[in-house]
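Reopening this ticket.

The earlier resolution said the output was attached, but the attachment link was broken on my side. Pasting everything inline this time so it's all in one place.
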Amino acid sequence: MASIGIIISSICGVLPVALWLVFFLWQDVKKPEPKKWILILFLCGMLITPFVYLFENYYLNFFGLKTSQNLNIFQNLIVYLGIALIEEIAKFLTAFFVLKRNKYFDEAIDAMVYLIVLALGFSVVENILVFYNEMREGSQLISALSVLSLRFIGANLLHALSSGIIGYFWALKILTKKRKYLFWGLFLGIFLHWLFNLVIILIGGEIVIYLSIFLFVVTIFLLWAFDILKQIEKPIKI
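Inline output:
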């Protein structure tokens, strides 16, 4: 039964991420990246997830905090800032070192594409774990699917947007050789991730609709950023 649950959880966990993957890859249809490298970055996002979780647990234990505890506002600030910081930096550094071996990483828009793909790989593992835990705790299938649908318009999109923002400013840093762009990209990506999680925890599910609208607005910005980088024909190299 456990193996069946894992299979069902895997299928359900992949589907919402697959939709975002198709959506964001569509932004680079004129000169799409090789499928091999899309798969590599996606798998890298999946593979780093357990190591990121271990590091997050170490971070929480160091401060004597747990997300399941009844924390005050200041403690929540520390917890979710650390989580956002660890996850976004881990995703960026993984992409940075992996893409050094990719000769097809030659356009500014590629920085956004690859980082978003890696982030969605990270989201898949989270989805599978969340769905499996829901089913193991006795939730009905419909209830578990509703949680997954909320992740589709929430956490899954958040990962893609945060990494996409970092990717955009990373591309500007590569083009201009100015490190300030990468700093601002990391700052904004981490801040978005931190703010979303913090608001969900402090206010609760009733604000999900407003957060979804906010993420929709950020998505519009990201599509605008894609359009800007599409117009840059200057080849890049890390």
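Reporter confirms the inline version is readable. The first helix runs from residue 2 to 25. Residues 21 and 117 are 7 Å apart (CA to CA).
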